[in-house]
Amino acid sequence: MSRLTEKLSKAQQHAMSIRPKVGGFPVLAEVLRECGVEMNRWSLPSCQSIYLMKEGSVVQQGTPLVTGTHEIPKFDRDALIAALRRDQRGESNFPEFLQSAWNAGVTGYDVDFSARKITYYGASGENYLEEYPAVQL
Fold it and tell me: Any idea where the domains of the chain sit in the sequence?
């Protein structure tokens, strides 16, 4: 494991240890921002996550949501917002959120840690922007 991947892994482990069940994403985001992550790019349904850091970039490959050939669901802003609110209330775990986002037609999203904004994208260029609050650790 390289120094940069180890730094990211330790930050993620720390964030998960202090993250509250309800409204936990801003805590995770702040820990990652403080460790030097500037942006996080998720690709669905592959569950590939790229972390753009001040010192370089790291990729993490999660378990894909689908394999083989599949039709991409139509982008459904209301379904995406419902999935976000369920997650924010602590009513879903992260894999369930990713599946719900995919089912709502999300093919990827970018988290901008300095601007505290997340942009969700559909296959035909649709997008939905959501801001999240600053937190003190």
Answer: 3-131
Cα 25 to Cα 34: distance, rounded to the nearest angstrom: 14
**Model confidence band, residue 137 (pLDDT cutoffs 50, 70, 90):** confident
Of 131, 3, 11, 125, whose CA–CA distance to 72 is shortest?
125
Here the tokens at position 55 are 């010192």
Distance between CA atoms of 39 and 29, rounded to whole angstroms? Answer: 10
Coil, helix or strand for 26? helix
As its CATH architecture, domain 3-131 has: 2-Layer Sandwich (3.30)
Q: pLDDT tens for residues 35-64?
A: 999 999 999 999 999 999 999 999 999 999
Tell whether omega for the bond before 45 is within 30 degrees of 0, i.e. cis. Answer: yes
